[in-house]
From TrEMBL:
This is hydroxymethylpyrimidine kinase. One of its GO terms (molecular function) is kinase activity. It comes from the Bacteria. The lineage of its organism: Bacteria, Pseudomonadati, Bacteroidota, Cytophagia, Cytophagales. Pathway: Cofactor biosynthesis; thiamine diphosphate biosynthesis. Keywords: Kinase, Transferase. It is an enzyme of class 2 (transferase). Its EC number is 2.7.1.49. It holds the Pfam family Phos_pyr_kin. The keyword Kinase applies. InterPro entries: HMP/HMP-P_kinase_dom, PM/HMP-P_kinase-1, Ribokinase-like. Residues 15-244 form the Pyridoxamine kinase/Phosphomethylpyrimidine kinase domain.
Length: 258
C-alpha cells in the first residue's frame, strides 16, 4: 500500500556526526513517516564529543534555499535550530509566516554546543517575546530556559514565557529516576515522563525530540499529542545503544492523526 507523506522543514546547522542538527532532524522526520526538507544555516566542524568551529550561512543563502522549497512543496511545519543571529530571527520568522499564514513553527534554541562552545548569550526579554509571538512551540532544555529568561527556576522561567507561546521544557538535564518534560499550554501543565536510562545520554537528543514533535504536528496531531509522541520516540533513540549516537527506527503510521 502506498501512502503520501506530509512535508516538514528543518532550518538548522549541519553536524557531520549526524547526531544533531539537519541530519538528525531529517532522520527523525523520516522515521516518523514525514518527508524531511532541510535548509542549512551553519556548517560545523565537530563530532559527538568535540566542537572546533562553525561557519555561518548568510541570511540571503538561507532564504534562497527555503524559497525554492516553498515554491515546490506544501510546507506547513518548520523547525528552527542553530542560527547565527537571534536579533535577525524575527525577520526569518516573518518571512516564513508570509509563505504560509497558517504555518506552525517550533524553535529549538541552540545556545551552546554540548562540547561547550558558546553560540549565544542571553537575549533581551523584548526579543524573546517578539520571537515567541511567531511560534507554535518553544523547546528549551533547563539551562537554555534560564539563559533565555532568567528566573528563580527553569520551571518559573518556562511559566512566564508560556504567556507568549507554548513551552515544552525538556527534562533531560534534571535529576531523578524519571526524565520529565513539561508542556505549558494555555495555562495548563502537561507532563511526559520516561525512565532515566543509565546510558541514555545522546548527542543531539534535544534535536531529536523537537523534530519528532514537528513530525507528529505535520501528521495532524494536537500539540499535546505531538509532545507525548515525540517524548516516546526520543526514549527509543536514547535506549537504542550505549554510545552517544542514537539509532532511529521507522514508523508504520504515516497518518496516525488523520
Amino acid at each position: 500500500m502506498t501512502f503520501s507523506r506530509p512535508y516538514a522543514l528543518s532550518i538548522a546547522g549541519f553536524d557531520p556526526s549526524g547526531g544533531a542538527g539537519l541530519l538528525a532532524d531529517c532522520k527523525t522526520l523520516e522515521s516518523n513517516a514525514v518527508y524531511g526538507l532541510g535548509v542549512c544555516a551553519a556548517l560545523t566542524v565537530q563530532n559527538d564529543v568535540q566542537f572546533q568551529r562553525v561557519s555561518w550561512v548568510s541570511p540571503t543563502d538561507i532564504l534562497d534555499q527555503a524559497q525554492l522549497l516553498f515554491a515546490r512543496f506544501p510546507i506547513g511545519c518548520v523547525k528552527i535550530g542553530l542560527v547565527e543571529s537571534l536579533p535577525q530571527l524575527p525577520e526569518l520568522l516573518g518571512w516564513l509566516r508570509a509563505q504560509n499564514s497558517h504555518i506552525r513553527i517550533i524553535w529549538d534554541p541552540v545556545l551552546k554546543a554540548s562540547a561547550g562552545y558558546e553560540f549565544h548569550g542571553g537575549p533581551p526579554s523584548t526579543l524573546v517575546e517578539t520571537i515567541c509571538s511567531f511560534l507554535t512551540l518553544l523547546t528549551p532544555n533547563r539551562p537554555e530556559m534560564m539563559r533565555l529568561w532568567p528566573a528563580a527556576t527553569p520551571e518559573q522561567a518556562a511559566l512566564e514565557v508560556s504567556a507568549f507561546c507554548p513551552v515544552l521544557l525538556k527534562g533531560g538535564h534534571d535529576r531523578g529516576p524519571l526524565a520529565t518534560d513539561i508542556l505549558l499550554l494555555e495555562g495548563k501543565e502537561h507532563r511526559f515522563a520516561t525512565p532515566r536510562l543509565p546510558q541514555g545520554e545522546k548527542h543531539g537528543s534535544g534535536c531529536v525530540l523537537s523534530a519528532a514533535v514537528l513530525a507528529h504536528l505535520a501528521k495532524g496531531a494536537t500539540l499535546v499529542e505531538a509532545c507525548r509522541a515525540g517524548k516516546a520516540y526520543t526514549a527509543t533513540v536514547l535506549a537504542s545503544n550505549p554510545t552517544l549516537l542514537g539509532y532511529h527506527f521507522g514508523s508504520t503510521q504515516p497518518h496516525a492523526y488523520q
